[in-house]
Amino acid sequence: MISIFGVIAIGLWKYTSGSLPAFSPPSDWVTEYHGVQAVSLFLLLRAFSSGLSALTGMEAISNSVPVFQPPAIRNARVTLFWMGAILAVMFSGISFLATHMAVIPDPNEQATVLSMVTRLLVGESWYFYLVQFATMLILVLAANTSFAGFPRLAAILAQDRYFPHQFLFRGERLAFTTGIIVLAVLAAALEVIFRGSVDALIPLYAVGVFTAFTLAQSGMVVHWWRSRERGWRYSMAINGFGAAMTGVATVVIAVSKFLSGAWIVMVLVPLIIWQLRKIHRHYDNVAEQLRVDAEKVKTRPVTWAQGSTVVVPIDSLNQAAVRAIDYAQGISNDVTVVHVAYDPEDAELLRQRWGEAGMRLPLVLIESPYRELVGPLVNYIEQLHSERDTATMTVVVPEFVPAHLYEVPLHNQTAWRLRTTLWTHPRIVVTSVPYHLMK
């Protein structure tokens, strides 16, 4: 920010002193431009849509209100005001200098307008490279906002059963690993497909961002209409105005940038929404088929048998877990049911359901503050095996089999990971008890 203000100050000083340099484009650049276009509505819309792209990123403040120091709303409002003011000054200053220096965009996308303006003002001095380095850092931080926001959004959608459950997985550093990896792969694919062209990528970005703005503002309108909290009319009017403005911006960008790549987003968004609804319907079907009735669980016949120590790891009390427990009780009278607890609230809910179902087996809860599943479970099994000093130990793994092969990637492969880890133990036998879904 300071470096950009420095460029603007140097440029204004040279402008007032009459020593502002003029830009002389190479001859091959001039052929890319076909004279001065007539000022038409379409040209104005294109310029307007291109300028709107400069406003993206300001939503990061509104998205981060909960992390502000109290009073959070006031601090976020002040930050947003100053961010808007700084953006307006920098954007207007660079645009003013570029216009009066006759700087035109590089058709080969080898140099930015900012770098050309800076080079003309200060030459290739240390200050020129300072501005370039500062710009690079800002772009890196801007790219990092996606890696901070998308994994959280994907986890929320996965929790609501609109995204595959793999996006709920947290790594050892408590980051949503799957979301980060998927975003990195998709970003790399876009870079390869569009050959790193910023002009080609901006229309995709702008349409997507302003579509999200419109949906968010419209959602807040619905929220205020339903909640009818104090001052809801004023808040709904503000969000309604925001939805209208961002909606107009979305339409303008979509129309003016349609042939420049915006059509891709307009085609992909409905397809993605359709796919999300299919995923949600699949998870609803799975939950319906796995749901257990506490009374039926209490009255089910159970056959006890002698045998080795059996451990049954479960994620929740569902049909697949009940079938695995029944199988375990059929092969041994020494059965231990284990659950790796990520969240204390979920663990307490499982304990409550366990008691309501009248389960006659003890439920062992293993705390995992780092949200790791296989490691704590394997450690517990190894410890139990050494304590019991039995010849063999059987681990009965419940898993459900989706009705269609293409639905398999929607589910965590926990059973497969556990089997793969325990196969290396010579005195531990791993048995899978499948529960086949019908739809």
UniProtKB/TrEMBL annotation:
It is a multi-pass membrane protein. The keyword Transcription regulation does not apply. GO terms for cellular component: membrane. The chain crosses the membrane at residues 78-98, 126-153, 174-194, 200-222, 234-254, 260-276. The lineage of its organism: Bacteria, Pseudomonadati, Thermomicrobiota, Thermomicrobia, Sphaerobacterales. Keywords: Membrane, Transmembrane, Transmembrane helix. This is Amino acid transporter. The keyword DNA-binding does not apply. It is found in: Membrane. InterPro entries: AA/rel_permease1 (IPR002293), APC_K+_Transporter (IPR053153). Pfam families: AA_permease_2. It comes from the Bacteria.
